[in-house]
């Protein structure tokens, strides 16, 4: 039998499977209420509208839509994205946009372009698992900076950056999800965004701003992206159609400029040559007709009550001693349970009780977060959320009782 492992690169040896992706298999059981994966609600998919759009794209652009496209992406779609980005406060031209096959590809591209084995990159504690795994696959050392109710703590970041530089370590980039963070659900206010930008300028650093959830806001005004304060081209901004349209499209975009943009395009050429041309035409049609904006409003209207049901069920069923701030948008609530509860081991009990979540440690590069968990509120039906929260509360209560008995 072939011993394939001995032939692997060091890089492949260090790749880890995504806990979220693994959970997707477990949660295929229709009896399980899943608060685990960051999945949009399938009822939000605009299937009827898409029938017409798909028909029109095939009729009007069939030959181009089924052909290879340029690596950077469809010019018209890049124009549409640049236009909405300008509305959001960023000074963006179609030339600055690269269409990618999901922002996960963007994260991987960032890793490929910036990271040598042993390099240091900075992420939040907690931070998006897909980002952590992408950077780890390039054998990076990830330094975690605590995240509070206002996102990454800039005071601790500053101290950490200074200490790294003192030790001759240049952090290659700072990875942030500033709006409705995955997993913590928090929003970084404008003042902190500006401080982060100032810090990056002062120490000549790059910021990766990952923003899949910015448009899914329920009770907060639009906050300008960090990229909008970037005069020096040191922020790579990315967003995706996954949460505002359909993740099956595998369509997202990155915004950067100059030499860096060119490097990322070359990098993408080796990954997949070009992004799905067909879905690019569809997305462009939806953006130009204004349907996408209307659709985003519908998603907000669908998710806000789900957030509310989850929060009030938490209040009603959860035992005292937990902490959870009401997220003002996005798809996730972050719960901290009393010390002594390990949400990773509790997960097996949760599955037995037909409810799933993602345990907090999965999002911590420092091994922390044992008593925390991420709950997704977008995917389940309103009734399932109510039912699932009651099940989860019982699991937590049993765990607390069991811990008491041991103490
Ligand atoms: N970044 C963050 C913060 C995410 O939450 C996700 C999806 N959960 C992604 C990137 C990847 O999204 P995409 O479907 O565009 O690859
Ligand atoms: O299905 C995925 O892997 C994307 C979702 C990410 C998440 O749950 O944060």
Please characterize this protein's 3D structure.
The chain is of the alpha/beta class. It folds into 2 domains: 4-46 and 296-406, Aspartate Aminotransferase, domain 1, CATH 3.90.1150.10; 66-292, Type I PLP-dependent aspartate aminotransferase-like (Major domain) (Aspartate Aminotransferase, domain 2, 3-Layer(aba) Sandwich). Helix content is 44%, strand content 13%. It has helices at 10-14, 19-26, 47-65, 75-87, 103-114, 129-136, 154-166, 190-202, 258-271, 277-289, 291-317, 343-352, 382-406, and strands at 33-34, 97-100, 120-125, 141-148, 151-152, 174-176, 207-210, 235-240, 252-255, 332-336, 355-356, 358-359, 372-376. The chain has a 5-stranded mixed beta sheet, sandwiched between helices. Strands 3-4-5 form a 3-stranded mixed beta sheet, with helices on both faces. Strand 4 and strand 5 form a beta hairpin. Helix 4 (75-87) crosses helix 10, helix 5 packs parallel to helix 6 (129-136) and helix 5 packs across helix 9 (258-271). The longest helix has 27 residues, at 291-317. The model has no long low-confidence stretch (mean pLDDT 96). The structure holds 4'-deoxy-4'-aminopyridoxal-5'-phosphate (PMP) and (2E)-pent-2-enedioic acid. (2E)-pent-2-enedioic acid binds at residues 20-21, 37-38, 130, 182.
């Amino acid at each position: 039998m072939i011993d394939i492992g001995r032939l692997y690169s060091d890089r492949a040896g260090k790749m880890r499977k995504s806990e979220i992706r693994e959970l997707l298999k477990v949660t295929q059981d229709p009896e399980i209420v899943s608060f685990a994966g960051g999945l949009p609600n399938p009822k939000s998919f605009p299937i009827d509208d898409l029938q017409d759009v798909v028909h029109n794209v095939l009729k009007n652009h069939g030959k181009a839509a089924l052909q290879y496209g340029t690596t950077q992406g469809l010019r018209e779609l890049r124009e549409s994205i640049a236009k909405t980005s300008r509305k959001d406060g960023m000074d963006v031209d179609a030339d600055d946009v690269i269409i990618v096959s999901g922002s996960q590809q963007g994260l991987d591209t960032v890793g490929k372009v910036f990271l040598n084995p042993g390099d240091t990159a900075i992420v939040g504690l907690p931070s998006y698992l897909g980002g952590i795994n992408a950077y780890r696959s390039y054998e990076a050392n990830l330094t975690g900076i605590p995240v509070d109710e206002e996102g990454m703590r800039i005071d601790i970041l500053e101290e950490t950056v200074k200490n790294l530089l003192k030790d001759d370590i240049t952090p290659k980039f700072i990875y942030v999800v500033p709006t409705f963070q995955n997993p913590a659900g928090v929003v970084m206010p404008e003042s902190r965004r500006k401080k982060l930008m100032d810090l990056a300028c002062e120490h000549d650093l790059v910021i990766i701003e990952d923003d899949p959830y910015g448009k899914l806001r329920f009770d907060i005004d639009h906050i300008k992206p960090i990229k909008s304060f970037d005069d020096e081209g040191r922020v790579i901004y990315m967003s995706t159609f996954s949460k505002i349209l359909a993740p099956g499209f595998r369509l997202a975009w990155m915004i950067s400029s100059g030499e860096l943009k060119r490097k990322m395009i070359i990098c993408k050429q080796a990954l997949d040559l070009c992004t799905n041309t067909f879905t690019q035409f569809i997305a462009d049609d939806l953006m130009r007709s204004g349907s996408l904006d209307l659709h985003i409003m519908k998603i907000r209207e669908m998710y806000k009550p789900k957030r509310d049901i989850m929060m009030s069920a938490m209040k009603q069923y959860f035992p005292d001693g937990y902490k959870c701030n009401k997220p003002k948008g996005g798809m996730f609530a972050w719960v901290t349970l009393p010390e002594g509860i390990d949400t990773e081991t509790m997960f097996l009990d949760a599955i037995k009780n037909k409810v799933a979540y993602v345990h907090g440690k999965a999002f911590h590069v420092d091994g922390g977060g044992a008593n925390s968990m991420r709950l997704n509120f977008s995917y389940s039906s309103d009734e399932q959320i109510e039912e699932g929260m009651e099940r989860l509360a019982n699991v937590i209560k049993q765990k607390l009782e069991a811990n008491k008995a041991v103490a």
